[in-house]
Amino acid sequence: MKCPVCGGEAKATGKEWKFGQFDAKGYKCSSCAKSFSAYYKAGKLSHTVPKAK
Ligand SMILES: [Zn+2]
């Protein structure tokens, strides 16, 4: 997963959950240390949401 903040390599945290009709996964960027969530719909990436922290 490409980091939406810096474009670096972000790794899955292993955290996954359901959000309405989306499947969400947690990611953390190894370049800028930002965490974000990626939302998938029908197996395709829909959008990413940066975490506040
Ligand atoms: Zn980053």
Overview of the molecule:
The structure is a single chain. With 53 residues, this protein is mostly beta strands. The chain has one domain (10-47). The protein is 0% helix and 60% strand. It has strands at residues 10-19, 22-29, 35-41, 44-50. A 4-stranded antiparallel β-sheet has the order 1-2-3-4, with no helix packed on it. The chain is globular and about 30 Å long. Bound molecules: zinc ion. Residues 3, 5-6, 8, 29, 31-32, 34 line the site of zinc ion (ZN).
SSE blueprint:
Elements: E1 10-19, E2 22-29, E3 35-41, E4 44-50
Antiparallel strand pairs: 1-2, 2-3, 3-4
The structure holds zinc ion.
List keywords for this structure.
53 residues, mainly beta, 4-stranded antiparallel β-sheet, 0% helix, 60% strand, globular, binds zinc ion
In short:
By secondary structure, this protein is mainly beta. Helices cover 0% and strands 60% of the residues.
Write down the Rg: 10 Å
Quickly count the helices. Answer: 0
Give the strand line-up of the largest sheet.
1-2-3-4
* Helical content (DSSP H or I, runs of 4+): under 10%
The chain-level structural class is: mainly beta
